[in-house]
Amino acid sequence: MYMCCWITMGIDSKSRTKDCSWLAFYLVLLLFGKQALAQIRYSIPEEVQEGTVVGNVAKDLGLDITSLIARRFRVVSGSKDAIFEVNQNNGALYVDKHIDREELCQGSGACLMELKILVETPLEIHYVLVEITDVNDHSPSFPEREQIFEIAEHTLPGRRFQLHTARDPDAGSNSIRTYTLTSNNHFEVDIRQSDEDKIPFVVLKKSLDREEKNKHTLLVTAVDGGKPPKSGTLNVSIIVLDINDNRPLFSQDTFQIDIYENAPFGTSIFKMNATDPDEGTNGEIEYSLGKTMKQKIYEMFELDKITGEIRIKGVVDYEENEVYKLDVEASDKATPPLTGECRVVIKIIDVNDNPPEIEVTSLSNTVSEDSKPGTVISLISVTDRDSGVNGKIISSITSDVPFELKPSYKENIYSVVTKGFLDREEVSHYEITIKTIDCGEPPLSSVKTLSIQISDVNDNSPHFQQAPLEFYLVENNVAGNSIFSVSATDKDVNDNAAVSYHIVREGSQNDIMSFLNINSDNGYISALKSFDFEILKTFQFQVVATDSG
């Protein structure tokens, strides 16, 4: 850009001035990023070979394959071990690491992985769901190879004895379908469905006679629903003893209690209440936890074998596990003892013990001052491990800056955008403070600060402090000496503020260049000849200051 002014120069007090005029030209190219959001879904079985193509995500998203490398087409993963990657040459999404569905997802529900696909220039983020389907790659297995029961003779038919529960990490139809028992005259197998588990029981269907046979050997087989099915076996030994004809009984098969997470160690949460109508040692009850539960349960809870009190002995964390299922047995002190069983379901109530977390997914830390309002400079996501109102997050920018948060169609995803015009000459740097607060009681919060630099554009012309300028020169000056200087300033920086000077040739004044010279770098004007008052009393010329933008 440039600016010009008229300078009037006189030999005596008589002078004339002319109004200063200047001409400025502005050329502004406004570029801003555009966030594109889309979501597609693929499905792939576990255990496929590395390199297996899941789908052409670039094609399905409508992206130009030839521009993928330039736009840094990639998968953004919150995990160190990313399972999927994209091929920037053809846009294919492929398996990069071994997939084990049982390692990634527990239970029989859908195993979904959400991937973030990112491209730049303009900035776009897409969300891709990949469902990992199960294959029947595990056989059912029992925690022990053998289980022994001691059963008194004359025990009434229908008596149930809980077997070890087999485990199969596979899901859906590939998990355990049923249990079978070798053919015999006295026992049959029965299955109780409890939530997602099938709990097997050996049921006495015909009274035992120790004198006829004192030991029965059975084989229990757990079979899954795969094609072909897989199976695992458990050896069951039945020792027939003399009568203790009443077993401890609980008032119900399942008890449900609620406790708050972070409950102190040693807190008593429940007391078992089994009864046995027998007298003496046959009616004295001792309690124990079942032997087929996950190890974590034994680390979290303890059961007093005399009082039946269940106490906390580990850290109860809702975010780690919402429900614990305890199998409790009550045994009398007869020889052999008789047992009753029940299940205690402990539901953990969430408390607000996790602050929100802010993740900066993408950040442009330099923004041009000519950016339009609405220009995206950053993408952020906020999460809270708590649930319900404890996990509901309110996000805002707390600093007084010309930026604002724009929510995405996906909950807790935001764009940081400009909300006004920027001027580097007024403010060249911003600290954007983003605060997230949950709705728990008391509320917890987190803060993240983004540092943004404003880059310069050539939007200011050089400026003379005084225009027009008037000065006097004594005649008979020495030719070649400096007689005057001009100076202009520019609010821009670097090349946009580097000013040079020149004298304008205009009309009949072209001969001005024959007796005046200006230094283009510093604005010093020198006379090329000696002036004579009687020949020339006054003259004027125009100096133009131009920046290098």
Outline the secondary-structure elements.
Blueprint (H helix, E strand, L loop, with lengths): L1 E9 L28 E7 L7 E4 H5 L12 E3 L7 E3 L5 E4 L5 H4 L6 E9 L4 E10 L12 E7 L7 E3 L13 E6 L5 E8 L2 E8 L10 E10 L6 E11 L12 E7 L7 E4 L13 E5 L5 H6 E3 L5 E4 L10 E10 L6 E11 L7 E7 L2 E3 L7 E8 L9 E5 L5 E5 L5 E6 L10 E10 L6 E11 L7 E2 L4 E4 L9 E4 L2 E2 L10 E5 L11 E3 L5 E4 L10 E9 L3
Parallel strand pairs: 1-32, 2-8, 9-15, 16-22, 24-30
Antiparallel strand pairs: 1-38, 3-6, 4-7, 5-6, 7-8, 10-13, 11-14, 12-13, 14-15, 17-20, 18-21, 19-20, 21-22, 23-25, 25-28, 26-29, 27-28, 29-30, 31-34, 33-37, 35-38, 36-37
- Secondary-structure class: mainly beta
- Our count of domains comes out at 5
Mean pLDDT: 83
Q: Helicity, in percent? A: under 10%
Q: Largest sheet, described in full?
A: 4 strands, mixed
The CA-CA distance between the termini, in Å, is 7 Å
CATH-scheme architecture of the largest domain: Sandwich
Specify the overall morphology: elongated
Helix count, per DSSP?
3
Relevant CATH superfamily of the largest domain: Cadherins
CATH class of the largest domain: Mainly Beta
Strand content: 35-45%
The CATH topology of the largest domain turns out to be Immunoglobulin-like
Contiguous runs where pLDDT drops below 50 for at least 5 residues = 1-38
What's the total count of β strands? 38
Gyration radius, rounded: 43 Å
Q: Looking at the chains present, what oligomeric state does this protein adopt?
A: single chain
Strand neighbour order, sheet with most strands: 32-1-38-35
